[in-house]
Amino acid sequence: FNKQVTFPNTAVEISSPYHIEITGHGYSDGDKVFYIAGSQPIKYNHSSSTNVEIPNIVYVKRFDNNNITLYNDSDLTNLIQFTETGAGTHALSDIKYLYFAPKSAG
């Protein structure tokens, strides 16, 4: 699938089915991705807290060719139910293509 896709905050649905519209996303069920927030992050209700930022590492479930839902777990049983769309342009990146610079010694 795509190494990275971007989407505006207006593509985030904060009611059921809590999907994100990304035309031609290319994702498959269970793809592990890294979420990169826009100028303000997307938020959801976690089991112990309300309106928290969605995690950086999430799992994709393909809703259709142009929509996905996000999950907290690789079994795709813990749907992330968005409460706020955030602001700006968000991104999802294939975890295999991220590069984290090593911490310098000293």
Write the layout of secondary structure elements.
Layout: E1 4-8, E2 20-21, E3 32-36, E4 43-44, E5 52-53, E6 57-64, E7 67-71, E8 82-84, E9 89-94
Q: What is the average of the pLDDT values?
A: 90
Low-confidence stretches: none
Question: How do the strands line up in the largest sheet?
Answer: 1-9-3-6-7-2
Q: How widely separated are the two ends?
A: 38 Å
CA gyration radius, whole angstroms:
14 Å
Structure notes:
The chain is mainly beta and 106 residues long. Helices cover 0% and strands 36% of the residues. The protein is built from no helices and 9 strands. It has strands spanning 4-8, 20-21, 32-36, 43-44, 52-53, 57-64, 67-71, 82-84, 89-94. The strands form 2 sheets. The chain has a 6-stranded antiparallel β-sheet with strand order 1-9-3-6-7-2, with no helix packed on it.
Quick structural overview:
The chain is an all-beta fold and 106 residues long. It has strands at 4-8, 20-21, 32-36, 43-44, 52-53, 57-64, 67-71, 82-84, 89-94. The protein is globular, with a radius of gyration of 14 Å.
